[in-house]
Amino acid sequence: MNIIRQLHHALKINRTLVRYGLDEFLAPTPLAILRPIARLFSFSFSRKEQDKSRGQRLRLALVELGPIYVKLGQMLSTRRDLIPPDIADELALLQDQVEPFPSSDALTLIEQQLGTSVSAVFSHFNPQPLASASIAQVHEATLKNGEQVVVKVLRPSIRQKIRRDLNMMHELASWAEKYSSEARRLRVKEVVKEYDATLEREIDLRIEAANTSHLRHNFKQSELLYVPKIYWDFTRTKVMVVEKISGTPIGQVQSLKEQGVNMKALADRGVEIFFTQVFRDSFFHADMHPGNIFVDTTNPDKPQYIAIDCGIMGTLDEDDKRYLAQNFLAFFDRDYRRIAELHVESGWIDEDVSIPEFESAIRAACEPIFGKALAEISFGHFLIQLFQTARRFNMKVQPQLVLLQKTLLYIEGLGRQLYPELDLWETAQPYLKRWLREQIGPKAVFGEVKEQLPDWLHKAPKIPGMLFDNIQRLSHEFEKFEELKKDITQLEQYKLKQNIAQRDAIIGIGFGLLGGMFYLSQELSVITIGTASISLFFLAKSLWPKKVK
């Protein structure tokens, strides 16, 4: 039954794409031969919105397919180096201009979640949505105390829709890994599983509220980033109330320039915020498309970022951070051998790989980048080169880094729009060097000692007693060990005695059988008596074996 549902959903996706004429994207590729098949299984000969551009049709199709596909469009909208401008412009509208759901549904859900009427909580509530995205929409409101807020409300039945699409993705991932070694190398099933967990967290607004609160704490009093306040008394699973912010959407580049914003400073600060979140806090905003970022232009020379929508956050452990920082710095120094060694040490590449060969491949991928500004660097082409390198050396995809990789793509896309001359690597290098010094230098050692010292001083008076207890415990363990050795020796002696007894018994039985044969032949009575005596001797010896030394 599940297979039938999945097949039905796959056919629905195909029908939607064909009806919007999106099979035209296959035309210039080797997959063009599949167009007649796709059209046949669409079971529809009608076309929708044929008077619209391909970008508009793609955007409308993604909206019709659902939230997961909308999020895919959001990510692609920042990759203007990979997709044509007309498509990028249309996909950018997916960031906060998805078709809203009826306000009556939003009001009903708010009252169900809060357990009271809207008028009891808000002195004013705007029924017209301020913005509408793939997972939720937001409304402006005013609390009874006069504070300006926005109310975020999940879309009706969004959990069921996401689960349907994710089930399809799980099925496709299993099928891909079953029949494709490349899919197994990329660990597609693990990636989909991680994405599944991420979306599950995003559709629980209490988790988003907690993420927002934590990010706000990390950047408290910071001039770089402002995170709005959460109103916990009015936050539930499907409803969240948060401070209303005012700022210029970061995608409105021309408006920022007209306000006199220092675009280089803005771009530099964005890079610093990203690396601070990743390496200082191990907690980074992983959905940094332009719809979620605003700019406070009060001080144009020192513009401050404002971050909203913290539903998707990424984390890294200490080992991942250290390897990433060392890889980045090795890249800055063009130390390709160190990059190859780090990949092996981290387990991303098998230990039996040829380091010199891997080093040479990395050099071929990285060397063309140096000496160019960000505007001249095709990171899409660079990622393709690295992907080809990964295929050659069986590099394993790290699921914990998928969100980080996506966020890096967003950072690059924003960098291109804000300040095309920005050298991302030059901006990041000083920060990473400083972070590594803090982690492994003398200051880091002193800091660790300083941190642990109170605990050591607290335990110091107990150390003599602890030493005495440990010595006693070791003494008892040694006595047990000696007893065990004695038991083992006795066991070995017993086994040896048993073996000797078995040998004597076999010899006694053998001579007994031989004596019986002589007795039955009624000849050689002396020999018969002799063999019988020997038999009795060995049988008796087997019953009372001597002590083995």
TrEMBL record:
Major localization class: membrane
GO biological process: regulation of ubiquinone biosynthetic process; ubiquinone biosynthetic process
Location of the ABC1 atypical kinase-like domain: 94-343
Active-site residue numbers: D287 (proton acceptor)
One term under GO cellular component: plasma membrane
Membrane protein topology class: Single-pass membrane protein
Transmembrane segments: 526-544
Superkingdom, taxonomy of origin: Bacteria
Protein's name in the database: Probable protein kinase UbiB
Lineage per the UniProt record: Bacteria, Pseudomonadati, Pseudomonadota, Gammaproteobacteria, Kangiellales
